[in-house]
Task: structure prediction
Amino acid sequence: MTRPSFDLAAHCAAWMATYCKEQKRKGFVIGVSGGVDSAVASTLAAMTGLPTMCITMPIEQARPEIQRARAHLAWLARKFPNVEIHEMDLGQEFDGLARTFRAHVPRGRVQLALVNTKSRLRLAAMYFCATTLDRLVVGTGNKVEHSGVGFFAKYGDGGMDLCPLQDLRKSEVVALGRKLGISRAILRAAPTDGLWPDGRTDEDQIGASYPELEWAMDLRENEVDSRGLKLTARQREVLRLYDKRHADNQHKIAAPPACPLPQGISWPS
Result:
């Protein structure tokens, strides 16, 4: 029996449009970094037919990433009349924040804190636009980042109103991008968060590639006992990296906890 074809892009775009209307908003705002996740998510937003503001926000970003983002924005504007594109350079604003922050906390994990500040500054810019235009902010993260290893900045690129790619693995996002006609330059580019001036990749930061992380995620989600498997030294290392990040980043992956109150508590009068 032949399985019916399923148009994932149309399904995601329809879901986004329905959700936007249910929330009584007028459209979307999304940041475009030059990577495949934001390219696919922005294209899905454009496919809804609703007003879609696509912004690239370079802050000390590697030149090839900026060029890919600009090319994708131009492609979207030509293809979808409901898309408006903007480039918002936040470098000067970031420099001012960095000086102020470092004056108070000059030591410790300063470099990582500043990288996360870039992501949070971008989110602030998107929410300014979204609030002003009565729109929703679209997230661009995939399942491996969000549910697997927690590879995102809390209240930075992890902040959003909806996320159409959150149940898709990176390989599935790439496959969807190929069907959507996303440029080869973006599809072939090494995944990066676009936050490091030296252009370091996600693999540089995590220590494992997305195919490796998807393999580890499949084992853990299917509750496979890895002790009974004949694993190579590399596979054992990938599992170790995956498990450590999954555990260490639960404060990002899970919803913030609330302090439970005991039943029958007596409130002071």
Residues 9-202 form a domain with the Rossmann fold fold (CATH 3.40.50.620).
